[in-house]
Write a structure and sequence with these properties.
This protein is an alpha/beta fold. It folds into two domains: 146 residues, Response regulator (Rossmann fold, 3-Layer(aba) Sandwich); 65 residues, Orthogonal Bundle (Arc Repressor Mutant, subunit A). 58% of the residues lie in helices and 14% in strands. It is built from eleven helices and seven strands. Helix 8 crosses helix 10 and helix 9 crosses helix 10.
């Protein structure tokens, strides 16, 4: 095959990537890294759930790179939504959130990889190619943890109280720690105010917290330590 033919062939096979992150500078930096590669190209960007779904419909990607904290929406919900609509679409989470708390949740939601933004500076291309090839990408620490859990018990064992929270409860807890009101949380998660109050009651029960002010203090302290 001639050099020209090889280049044409490579261009046709470039993995199409959608970037979903609410920080323009993060998207710009990722696009810069990805577009330098002969086999990868960024074909779309979005800052929230609605933009991401529109971008997928307009130009279906081979891989969506998704942050968990999006503008007026939640990345975990987006992953579940995309997986339900397009079960073959591959997704990789790139996030600042603690991987020990979120990585397994993201995989269960439909993602095929999880990498922290700190690690992404070194291994983002490795993670992208691993997921595009149909394999799971996780850090060694998290992969070992999941395998150990599977080997010893069918039921997950929480190592911290927050791990006891279900996905939606964790979202409400996190948004509470970020200072959002009950109304604002309901609006962002597209649920009723009473539903948020129900989640908060469950959170208090699971975390053994007696009142709302103590829940708020705990949520703020946890959010700052994340």
């Amino acid at each position: 095959m001639t050099r020209k033919a090889q280049l044409v062939c490579t261009a046709r096979k470039r993995g199409r990537i959608l970037l979903v992150d609410d920080h323009p500078l993060v998207r710009e930096r990722l696009a810069e890294i990805i577009n330098r590669e002969a086999d990868l190209i960024v074909t779309g960007e979005a800052e929230d759930r609605n933009q991401a779904l529109e971008a997928i419909l307009a130009k279906p990607p081979d891989l969506a790179i998704v942050d968990l904290t999006l503008k007026h929406s939640d990345g975990l919900d987006l992953i579940k939504d995309v997986h339900a609509r397009w079960p073959r679409m591959r997704m990789l989470v790139v996030s600042m959130h603690d991987e020990s708390l979120y990585a397994e949740r993201a995989i269960r939601a439909g993602a095929m990889g999880y990498i922290t933004k700190q690690e992404a500076t070194r291994n983002i291309l490795l993670a992208i190619r691993r997921v595009l090839s149909g394999n799971i990408y996780l850090s060694r620490k998290i992969a070992d943890r999941i395998l150990t859990r599977l080997a010893h018990s069918a039921d997950p064992v929480a190592t911290t109280p927050v791990e006891l929270l279900a996905d939606r409860e964790l979202q409400v807890f996190e948004l509470t720690g970020r200072g959002l009101s009950t109304y604002d949380i309901a609006s962002q998660l597209s649920v009723a105010v009473k539903t948020v109050e129900t989640y908060r009651a469950r959170i208090k029960e699971k975390l053994k917290i007696t009142d709302g002010s103590k829940l708020l203090q705990f949520a703020i302290a946890w959010s700052r330590s994340e």
